[in-house]
Amino acid sequence: SHNLFSLHRSILCSYRQLFSTRINIVPKEYIEQLKNLQDKVPPFSSDIAVQIIEEELGKPIDELFDTFNRTSLAAASLGQVHVATIGDQKLAIKVQRQYLRELFDVDLGQLRQLAVFADALDLQSEGGLLDRNTQRDWVSVYEESKRLLCEEIDYLNELKNCDRFRKNFDDPKFRHIKVPNTYPEFTTEKVMAMEFCPGIKITDKEKLIEAGIDPVDIATKSAQSFLEQLCRHGFFHSDPHPGNVACEKGPRGEDRIIFYDFGMMDSFGSNERKGLVDFFFAIYYDADVKAACDALERLGMLRMGGDVDRIAVERVGQDFIDRFQETLQVDGKWDDQLDAEERKRITRQRRKQLGEEFLSLNADTPFVFPPTWTFVFRAFFSLDGIGKTLDPKYDLTRITLPYLKELLDLKDGNAFKTTLLRLGKRVGLRPVDINQFITQPRQTAKIEDIAARLEKGDFKLRVRALEVERMMERNKLLQKNTFNAVLSCLFLNTGIALASLAKETIFGTIPSKIPTQLAFGAAALFGLQVPRGLRKLKKLDSYNERYGLKA
Q1: Over the stretch 448-489, which tens digit does the pLDDT of each residue have?
Q2: What share of the chain is helix, strand, coil (3-state, %, to 5)?
Q3: Which of 91, 381, 453, 506 is the most exposed place for a label (fewest CB within 10 A)?
């Protein structure tokens, strides 16, 4: 039972590691304790580690390595690391905890039940992932998490990931990224051997400064390396918490970042990468809300279809982009950096200006949380925490802006084409502009044809009246309350009549006790629905008033 408890505790550490960098969320005294969970999880017996290595590699430990340190260097949630040598080569040997896969099956079953319950409950809050304008599928999020977690405990898969990650950064301009070499001959599903690359934990700011490493430079490079993984490689580290990232001085004296633990990696297709790049360009450079919404559709974050009010989405999106550009240009504060009163003032102002649009978004739920982005957001969450630890002025949003210049070649295939298209957009000479000029007479004739057919009654216009929708929703609640009240009174009168009939009849006593009780019970049942319905009506009126709309 002690082993089972330890295993459960080690898996929970994976979640606690995520919050160990969030100095802007978690109090400092808790941060210090959570930091211990980054790479100081209780180790298991070295005898068990040696037993696993010998069983997996098929030889005694003394025949496999010249030396093997039985004291673990570090222990993590899923395994621990020992140092070994072969000649002048120093290796880090990663050993998986016993019975991990069996425990995963138990824990994943429980997590799936929790996901089903979350889908049924459909928790909502204002802003973020739980906003009512966003559709959520927690079971799909669970399936995505299960896939990555099961891949993480396969060290053969981790070896392939490590080699691919190293190859992606095999470029002189990324000499500040260090990825350990691997040893396939000493790697199985439960044991992995890689180059021993010691370094300073990325969040240990004091030791970094002592070693002559600039924390601000490291914070910027870590963010840019992740953007490179997302936008260019389409293959990214999903678990960059401080236990998996370290720093050192390179051979040329440059500050270097060392990545470890490549079990939890994920990938994007070319369509998702282009959508992400297009979205960045739309909000950073072009301030083009239509292009931003098109990019979100490509990413699967914005639904398409006749039930989505695209005009409302674009109006709210334009407000966001305007405020984003204003904050970016004047070096102001983002919404989450403002005090509570200022945030409330801005929220009230936005609701007053865009109340109808917000209500439309909440009714249509046009946004979708794609399960494939679960670990992208987790990685951003971790990196943002690391950056804020290293640099109090760290701002991932502003770091992204200069980096986008390096992505010009990804937007339209090559940088020259993108530059020409951006220039053409300013002067109206893009291919799409020329096409519109040539086809203008045809489009004018089509509009005239539509207008003529409307006059003849061939077409019927469908107009969405949000005021009418709100009125109908309110009337539906009123009608339901009225119906419940009428039925309650009807059954109450029936019960009274039956009770009096049993007393006054000249034909003797009629057995009316059961019908009387049923009538009074039905009256109570429908009567209790009335205050419940009134609460719903009051809640609806309050909800509309928050957006500057009164019943």
Answers
A1: 777 777 777 666 666 666 677 778 888 888 899 899 899 999
A2: 65, 10, 25
A3: 506
Token pair for 52: 């696993």
Residue 241 has pLDDT above 80, yes or no: yes
Interval 106-116: pLDDT, tens: 878 888 888 88
Which value, to the nearest 10 degrees, does the dihedral of the CA atoms of residues 515, 517, 522, 523 take?
A: 110
Give helix 28-39 / helix 2-19 axis angle, nearest 10°. Answer: 120
Token pair 């060290």 in the structure block, residue: 155
AA identity, residue 413: G
Q: Which amino acid is at 478?
A: L
Considering all CA atoms of the chain, what is the largest pairwise distance in Å, rounded to the nearest integer? 113
Q: How many CB atoms lie within 10 A of CB 395?
A: 19
- Please tell me which residue in 39, 154, 204, 239 is annotated as part of the active site: 239
Answer yes or no: are the C-beta atoms of 290 and 314 closer than 8 Å: yes
Q: Are the beta carbons of 138 and 118 closer than 8 angstroms?
A: yes
Which three-class secondary structure state does DSSP give residue 31? helix
Burial class of residue 323 (count of CB atoms within 10 Å of its CB; 0-12, 13-18, 19+): middle
Between CA 127 and CA 149 the distance in angstroms is 28
- Whole-number pLDDT of residue 408: 60
Q: Are 136 and 369 in contact (CB under 8 A)?
A: yes
**Alpha-carbon torsion (386, 153, 16, 108), positive or negative:** positive
Q: Give the residue carrying structure tokens 């044991």.
A: 191
Place of tokens 């309050």: 542
Q: What percent of the chain has pLDDT over 70?
A: 77
pTM of the model: 0.71
Tokens matching residue 399: 């770091």
| Residue 510: CB atoms within 10 Å | 12
Flag whether pLDDT at 2 surpasses 50.
no
Q: Which residues pair with 374 in a beta bridge?
A: none
Q: Is 90 left (phi over 0), alpha (psi -120 to 50) or beta?
A: beta
**239 labelled catalytic:** yes
HEC-encoded secondary structure of 517-533: HHHHHHHHHHHHHHHHH
Lowest mean pLDDT of 150-154, 385-389, 413-417, 547-551, name the range.
Answer: 413-417
